[in-house]
Amino acid sequence: FSLGADLVGVGNIERWENAPLLMSPAGIMPSARSVVVCAIHHTDAMIEIGGEGSPHDYGSYFYQYYMNKQLDVISYRLACFFEDRGYRAVPIVSSNIWRYRNYKDLEATFAPDMSHIYASVCAGLTEMGYSGLAMSPEYGPRNRFVSIITDAPLVADPLLAGETLCDHCGQCIAHCYAEAVNK
Length: 183
Known about the structure:
The protein is α+β, with helices and mostly antiparallel strands. Helix content is 25%, strand content 19%. The protein is built from five helices and eight strands. It has helices at 25-28, 44-47, 59-84, 116-122, 171-174; strands spanning 7-12, 34-41, 89-92, 98-99, 111-112, 127-128, 134-135, 143-150. The strands form three sheets. It has a four-stranded antiparallel β-sheet with strand order 1-2-8-3, with helices on both faces. Strand 6 and strand 7 form a beta hairpin.
């Protein structure tokens, strides 16, 4: 939190046991025991800038570059924190590498090295909403995440109960300027 994170959670490596190896913490760092996930939130006004055009024309999407920088600093500093204490750590950048074609035996395209969205669920910070976005009790879907994989034996945070933040009302579909969500 002192580095600027609004949310911080820890997931133990067992929570990724059903993930494809090439998209999991163990696929990146075989000795991994824990994943720390940090988030900063979009301010309400940043998202609700209004107007006739898409807010992605300039507003909220543009500011994600600054948010990503902040998250990357947090992840790097935490990785250094772990290494200074004798543990190994791999910070996964906020907008990590996405594969646009099949990779080795991973039959997924447009696939990240590791999903921060799913990591936030595994760290007890969020639940998956109908839109496919991770929703936190504090900020709803207005979060950006970063993950740090480590072999430090950390205590995992409890998972959220599930299906308590999203009621499948469809408002995400009705209000998505980019029309990225459909029935």
